[in-house]
Amino acid sequence: MIALLIFLGVFLIFLVYVFRKNRKTNRLPPGPSGIPVLGYLPWISSECPHISFTELSRKYGPICGLQLGSVYTVLLSDPQLVRQAFAKDAFTGRAPLYLTHGIMQGHGIIGAQGSLWKDQRRFVAGCLKNFGMTKLPSTKRDKLEERILVIVNDCTSKLKRLTMEDGYGCIDPCEMFHHYVGNIINDIVFGKIYKEDDEIWKWLRFVQEEGLKHVGIAGPLNFLPFFRFLPRYGNVMKLLLDGKLKTHQHYQTIIDEHRARPEKMDNFVATFDDAMNTYVNNEHFTQQQYYHLLADLYGAGVDTTFATFRWFLLFMAAYPDEQKKIQDEMDELLGQKLPTLEDRLILIRIQAAIAETQRLRSVTPLGIPHGTTEDTQLGDYDIPKDSMIIPLQWAIHTDPAYWHDPLSFKPERFIAEDGSLIKPKAFLPYQTGKRMCVGDELSRMTLYLFAARILHLFVFSMPSGIRLDLEGEPGITMVPKPHRLIVTPRE
């Protein structure tokens, strides 16, 4: 029976491949040829797909088309093309990937499209703005800053305690900062702040890390769905679905706790619950959407910000001269005063260093893939419906046509001659267009407050005798390899 199902799956993918191969259009983007069923998949590195795709984009040009299993894929490696594409409604779908649809089932905000996505994005953006996620100063933003700083200050107190005995501390930044960055998102999404040794919180962090790892391992399932009948991939799928179910059960506990106490309308649990009561029988405010939206907001809120902050600290330890320039600027402009959001107007060098970290180590090197909802065009080429569109951040952020000496860490590339902060056109850390990161400003606030407060108080360096490795471990997000850092209080 399994053999028959696999045969039918292969046959169907072959038909899709032949159909697309023989489409009447002759204006598909240039790209490599593949083989039936698998397309170009065998030639894509499973460990570093961003490198394989970047090499293709350098060879075939800024818009490159290729077949990956059953999914026709378009690589975009020019920032203007990315902006042009993602400004169109036809490119606002989600990539037709099996895991996205098999696990999320079109719920949430990451895997949603069409009217559900538009409605939920509008809802999320409105909530974040109401919570204080704004670029301009306001009373609400001040309150959000206070919420973030409660956790940042707790983090700096922990670092001080670690350094009291010997004058320095040796930390695992992954273990250390996952707790604190995660708690900022816990507060905003769930209205909860966990203690570091809370068993449920430990489990939630473990599930998140395992989920990311297994989704990476299960990559071929996205393009060859019949692989789910193979024991290895079937077991991975079961683990992912079981993890989702248990996580949703925990979310229900949080929801029940909220309903049992006086309402606080400053988190997503409270606001979505209120929306469910207001819009009864609304197909966009259902229990399943509730669970999936909470999961998306937590995962998206933690993964990229946490990974970027880990890279930032690692680069500070690797480039002590750059770290000292940041600290000298704070000393000169702030003295003993602790940095606040208001000080972003004058603390240019730390913002440049954060931007350079986001450029050089794009934590989503493939960007967040989009999908086409209809046959459309881009530039001189036809793009079929249900294509996957990859905004290839790694290629854009390391393109020598836009960046001099692109593989070097140089924060000054984000500082203008007059000392102001600049944002080059090829800098797309939060993507662009209709589906750009809805929480981009919250991420900027969090990264800045953590980085500024911690570097104002501490110096980070590498343990002696340790070889520095800045290559990272690619996956859904690119993260540093396991390492430890020395933390020393500043005098």
From TrEMBL:
Instruction: Tell me a GO biological process for this protein.
Output: organic acid metabolic process
List cofactor names only. Answer: heme
The answer, when asked if Membrane is one of the entry's keywords, is yes
Q: Name one GO molecular function term.
A: heme binding
What membrane topology is given? Answer: Peripheral membrane protein
Query: Can you tell me which residues the record assigns to a coiled coil?
Result: none
Q: Write down the InterPro entries for this protein, in alphabetical order.
A: Cyt_P450, Cyt_P450_E_grp-I, Cyt_P450_sf, Cytochrome_P450_fam2
Task performed by this protein: May be involved in the metabolism of insect hormones and in the breakdown of synthetic insecticides.
Which family does the similarity line name? Belongs to the cytochrome P450 family.
Q: What protein name applies here?
A: Cytochrome P450 306a1
Q: Which organism is it from?
A: Trachymyrmex septentrionalis
What taxonomic lineage is listed for the species of origin?
Eukaryota, Metazoa, Ecdysozoa, Arthropoda, Hexapoda
